[in-house]
Design brief:
This protein is mainly beta. It has 1 helix and 7 strands; from the N terminus they run βββββββα.
């Protein structure tokens, strides 16, 4: 099993990645659970936008406002689920700025790469 190949521009830190190039497989013994459930959980991918601090790129510290790109499968481990890709402002609470939902992992990959490039090249993009 291979991870999805992702183009991630400079300025981002990958916190967690188990976004694999795999299709969900329904479990024949139970209709409400995936056989390969461990690839389809609420915690698939977590990327944080780095910030400049004293002339260096740094991960924002606990309590500082940050931009996070998060990917999960909802409902967790369910054949009825779908990917949920979000851009979140973390300023003490989870403020969703942008979201895409689909079962198609290739649409998620394309959207993720597009959002990362926009965040990298045009930080004001989210404010539009």
């Amino acid at each position: 099993m291979n991870l999805m190949e992702l183009r991630i521009p400079a300025g981002f830190a990958m916190y967690f990645n188990k976004f694999f190039d795999v299709e969900p497989e329904p479990d024949i013994d139970t209709e409400d659970f995936l056989k390969n459930w461990d690839y389809f959980t609420e915690d698939i991918l977590h990327i944080i936008k780095l910030e400049y601090t004293n002339g260096k790129m740094c991960i924002p510290t606990e309590g500082e406002e940050s931009i996070i790109i998060d990917l999960g499968w909802y409902p967790d481990s369910s054949p009825e689920g779908e990917y949920a890709l979000q851009i979140v402002k973390n300023n003490g609470y989870w403020d969703v700025l942008k979201e895409k939902r689909t079962k198609n992992r290739f649409d998620i990959k394309e959207t993720l790469e597009e959002w990362l490039e926009l965040l990298s090249s045009n930080p004001e993009w989210l404010k539009k």
